[in-house]
Amino acid sequence: MAGRQVQRTVQASTLRHRVGLHMRNCPTILKTELLAESSHFQIEALHLQFSNGQRRIYERLRGTGYRSVMLVAMPDPEHVLMVREYAVGVEGTILGLPKGGAEADESYLQAAQRELCEEVGLRAARLTELGELTLAPGHLCHRYRVVLAQDLSPCALDGDEPEPLECIKVPLAQIPERVASGELHEARAIAALFMAMGACGSGLDPR
């Protein structure tokens, strides 16, 4: 009994510690320096002061655009459309979802419709925003808005890809297997797929 009480006390202390982490104020940005810049990225150094007085210098990668979308396109309740494309970061072809940046004059849903036409050759009669994902937030400023695309029909629109993407129809039931095998390892795509499956199971009927 005493052992269980100690365990409960430790668990409660750990929970209070974790809650406290969420409640802390953000550090004060004392100065921001531009270290390097390319046509697509900026590397910045942020001089920070934390609430306990500690000072640190953190570096981050800032992109030229921050508004991006990732699409979970479902032609029917049991399948999702995925794409294979070259990813220079890992120097290989990966399995992922249609995605792209939003133009300055586009809403997220408008950008999602355009990217769907450009990359998959389809348009959606129904588009639903599911939420937002960050990408390596400790170092990057980038955010993706996840959009569920349903009621699909053909659409032709030229995109900016150097070569046509391979589009494949994947059963939703195979997603865990493809993740486990390592074929699907793009973290944003995995998170977006589970967001879509959760939404469809909680009232957003994909039919």
Automatic annotation (TrEMBL):
| GO MF | ADP-sugar diphosphatase activity
One Gene Ontology cellular component term attached to this UniProt record is: cytosol
Per the UniProt entry, the Enzyme Commission number(s) are 3.6.1.-
Concerning SUPFAM superfamilies, the annotation shows: Nudix
Record-annotated Nudix hydrolase domain positions: 65-192
Q: Which InterPro entries match?
A: NUDIX_hydrolase-like_dom_sf, NUDIX_hydrolase_CS, NUDIX_hydrolase_dom
The alphabetized list of GO BP terms reads: nucleoside phosphate metabolic process; ribose phosphate metabolic process
Looking up NCBIfam families in the UniProt record yields: PRK11762.1
Supply the name of the protein: ADP compounds hydrolase NudE
Organism equals Pseudomonas wadenswilerensis
Q: Which gene encodes it?
A: nudE
